[in-house]
Amino acid sequence: MFRETLAWLGNNKTMNKKHWLHLLNEDRKRTPDSATTGDGWIRVDYLDESSVIWSELTEETADSAIQAQVEFVRSCRRSFEWKLYDYDSPADLGTRLRAAGFREEPSETVLVISVSEALKWTVAADFEVRVCASEDDVEAYKQVAETVFAKNYQPTCDELLCEIRKGRNSNVGFVCYQDSTPVGCGRLYPNPGCHFAGLYGGGTLPSHRGRGVYHSLLAARARYAYQAGCKNLLIDALPTSKPIVERLGFRAIAITTPYKLLPEI
Questions:
Q1: Domain that residue 167 falls in
Q2: Reduced to 3 states, what is the DSSP secondary structure of residue 75?
Q3: Any alpha helices (H) in the chain, and if so which ranges?
Q4: CATH no. for residue 126?
């Protein structure tokens, strides 16, 4: 009986992962207004970068799809990313991208959780998490993000400001404060019509790590997602944050690796 129970649990976990992956693939194949669809691939053009968000290629079609993106980058001189998932085909797609000049970036684990499960999270008593609703809020976000990630966050902040000015919430910034000092930041993409709301850009100042800032940002974004009618949350986690979110109940379902291509100057 014990062995039968273990077998049932194993099969149930497999079915559950297949279910999550099915939902993820449905979201990846959605085409927003800024999307270009090719033979087995979808590319989205953001303000500062273009990205292949979904592909389903064969050994015969992969090289032509890659070449189409290389030519696109050369023609428009934009930064470019191919977001490759470990279940994408063909199996050697990463090797083909590297051969075409793409630079492989660190891989991240894709983890998911239902919003109903996430509502048990709470903001720590020492902190306050605010939604970015003004230029001052976005400037605080920028201050923290550039300190934590050591790169220019102006394009991201321009997107946040654009959403605020237009009264939209497809890209929402959050800042965690201790007293009046911003100590952490994060973003939420509610993604109306999709199965998952996306959690991105979570970071904490080195001076405040290990004190509940990251957890508080997750809790505030989960509450916002619930109020926005979202059903599930998705996060691409680096090795530093993966153990944290797994302890909170997130389930790992895939590995994603960004492949970057910069325009020739």
A1: 113-254
A2: helix
A3: 2-28, 62-76, 93-99, 115-118, 135-149, 154-165, 213-227, 242-247
A4: 3.40.630.30
Q: Which residues contact 135 (CB under 8 A, 6 or more apart)?
A: 161
pTM above 0.85, yes or no: yes
What amino acid is encoded at 156 in this protein? Answer: T
> pLDDT tens track of the chain, all 265 residues?
334 333 333 444 445 899 999 999 999 998 877 799 999 999 998 877 899 999 999 999 999 999 999 999 999 888 899 999 999 999 999 999 999 999 999 999 999 999 999 999 999 999 999 999 999 999 999 999 999 999 999 989 999 999 999 999 899 999 999 999 999 999 999 998 899 999 999 999 999 999 999 999 999 999 999 999 999 999 999 998 899 899 999 999 999 999 999 887 4
Q: How far is 253 from 242, CA to CA, in rounded Å? A: 12
